[in-house]
Design goal:
The protein is mainly alpha-helical. The chain is 64% helix and 3% strand. The protein binds one DNA strand of 10 nucleotides through helix 4, helix 6, helix 8, helix 10 and helix 12. It is found in: Mitochondrion.
Amino acid sequence: MITTMALRFPSRLLSQLKLSRRLHSLPAPLSEDSDDESLKFPSNDLEGSYIPVDRRFYNTLLKKCTVFKLLTQGRIVHGHLIQSIFRHDLVMNNTLLNMYAKCGSLEEARKVFDKMPERDFVTWTTLISGYSQHDRPCDALLLFNQMLRFGFNPNEFTLSSVIKAAAAERRGCCGHQLHGFCIKCGFDSNVHVGSALLDLYTRYGLMDDAQLVFDALESRNDVSWNALIAGHARRCGTEKALELFQGMLREGFRPSHFSYASLFGACSSTGFLEQGKWVHAYMIKSGEKLVAFAGNTLLDMYAKSGSIHDARKIFDRLAKRDVVSWNSLLTAYAQHGFGKEAVCWFEEMRKGGIRPNEISFLSVLTACSHSGLLDEGWHYYELMKKDGIVPEAWHYVTVVDLLGRAGDLNRALRFIEEMPIEPTAAIWKALLNACRMHKNTELGAYAAEHVFELDPDDPGPHVILYNIYASGGRWNDAARVRKKMKESGVKKEPACSWVEIENAIHMFVANDERHPQREEIARKWEEVLAKIKELGYVPDTSHVIVHVDQQEREVNLQYHSEKIALAFALLNTPPGSTIHIKKNIRVCGDCH
DNA sequence: GTAGGGTTAG
């Protein structure tokens, strides 16, 4: 058994520990009265040959297991430890508990906790943080309550863990209460507690409260800056996030991949491409290595801003690629309509020994669906199941989309009926959309009924059904949809487009009449219109949802927000510059 | 012996 243990530890670890000789003086593992099979060690005849090992030895081993997440080896150490004189040692048990918690085995951590003859505030804190770090916020909060009831005082370690849990568990909504508690204990301005607290406030959308906590910190570090930057980035507060980034630099803090990941994500989702490029340039100049976490977001930023080539360059330059890097690349190709390339890279990924996860399959399925690769898409759907990945609702959405786009609406319907899960609203929406594309009124109406039942507040499906009826000339049915929308108070989300010019974002809505440059914009658009008509442009009015004559429909089309944004951008940028227009909803066929 | 911030899809 001793030999087994020596073999189970990587030799690198052993030499690091210089323990190979000492390992042989380990006590022989004996069976314990534990009800957990995994903690049992076969008893042998060595009961009498117990040799004590000092606490530092166990401590070092457990710490190594914790750092390198060596759960199996940790269990072996545990097996030996419970035979030693340290089996009831408080600190040793806390270390053991921490090993299980950090390795993500919360069940074993809990068993250790439950069996401990003596506990202190570190014991409680260790398990609370284990739950908090492993996505079990409810358990963390529950245990915190028990800790208080048992009369233990939480410290700054406990509080930061509890606050992290509360931030993840929105139903509890105990943020302000916890903040008050921190003030009472005098920990509210502690940098760890404060960072967790301001992160919590940003997740609740209480940005002013977050700022107050940040301003009150006794000291700031990169984590507190990053927490605030990330908070604003998540809520599309890109300008504020960039401003904070400048503040961070002014105060002499070095941004990390945490800062960059947040900023790239924010720039990408709000269309601040130039600013995003500036941050990227800063990152290069500061000598920061392009690691996957920030690099993946950067790749995504370039892909979403329309440059698949830059996205690909980032992928090539990544110091080390993880599964997310591959998924981001696949998604980039899928979004750009390069289905075949996505399929090639998916195969490349598998050849390289990277195991595709559920998102990899989702990306490759999306790519096939968008490029009309029906057979390939079906092949990957089957492969996913063979690989042991259980399809989830989003995969079914993509398969319905795949079949629907290819025009096989009946097969799509059959697929929905035979799915092992209850169809979600998104699945019916995919079928509805396919019916719009292939002008199938009857099935479209059937799919829409299901959508209305499952997601009555989404205006999109009402508009699609209206369009299906309108384009088929069934105006009475179309009017009925419109009436229903009015009655149920469902409003179409107003379309808006925005464009970045000289580090500022300009936003437009359709028929924008209040813009100071509205006359110049209109003139510019007339100019563009004349030119494109000369080149053969014919207005596509098939999706105009207003019941009007052809000429009026054409006029309506001309004031869509993306056209106004384009005219504005042409007026305000030097000739030949790249113009990126972003839009909150799908671009209409004519504008496209 | 215990703590806080980040990514891909939809």
